[in-house]
Design brief:
- There is one protein chain.
- By secondary structure, this protein is an alpha/beta fold.
- The protein has eleven helices and 14 strands.
- A six-stranded mixed β-sheet has the order 6-7-8-3-9-10, sandwiched between helices. A four-stranded antiparallel β-sheet has the order 2-1-4-5. It has a four-stranded antiparallel β-sheet with strand order 12-13-11-14.
- It is elongated, with a radius of gyration of 25 Å.
Length: 324
Amino acid sequence: MDKQILVSVDRVGRRYGDLTAVHEVSFYLKRGEVLGFLGANGAGKSTTMNMLCGVLAPTHGTITIVGHDIIKDAIKAKSRLGYLPEQPPLYRDLSVDEYLDYCARLRRVPAVQRYQRIRDIKQRCGLSKVGRRIIGRLSKGYQQRVGIAQAIVHLPDLIVLDEPTVGLDPVQIREIRGLIRELARDHGVILSTHILSEVQAVCDRVQILDHGRIVFADDISSLSAQMSAATLLLSVRKEPNLGALLAIDGVVAVQRVGAMCPRGDCHFQLEIDEKNNPAERVAQYAVENQLGLYELIPQQMDLEQVFIDITTNERALSPEGTRS
């Protein structure tokens, strides 16, 4: 049975005068998924999140939350989502219990359910032992947990998290990521971040924004496929015939790495056809031509390089990419 679609965003854009901050963004989210919004600072992530949560009105396009239009049926739409902005909206002079009770009242959690609801949420977010602590005296990690707790105290279908691990130490980051994965079992989660490893760690699908446009939208397995070895690093003692290298079946392109054979060693990056891996043929060519083979190793792209390649290629293809 297909999972319920919680969010539908159709051709949404946002302009500020002559500046277009978000261009024709479309996506969806199903229950049980974590969707990563990845992009550099200024890519349009926060603007998109603010429109999704009803903080900003889109210039055009439609956004529905569990079937409710965020503009035409704002109260019902917003009741179905929880939002943690980059700066958590905490009252630092209140205790955790006081603050969550206040948030539960704002979210119209019935009085007869409020005590048990807050207790359950604290347990879920790892706050059971700090209920009486003043928020301003908690660590950054615990303050983020309180921020997530206020976002889910009314049991929303959709949880939107904007940069939830910024400023945390490695242990706190791991704990928050685990919490996000746990929340995704019953909710849908949209995670906006510029931290590449965050997407790999917790997301099922990813969308990359660049200058307000979605330039990549697919699941994590597809992104991982782009990171698989698509190049070979060839190191030899003698200068090879580049034409002969390129003529080897399965070699798509050849690029020199560094200067021409400094100190008697030459390095080349070979772009290859993964379905017709030429590694054995390249090694045979090097041996037969007595090039002095030092190494022939597959190289795996990291997520940072994939991100750079995707955004760079998109800019080159877009009209904006031709501007000086």
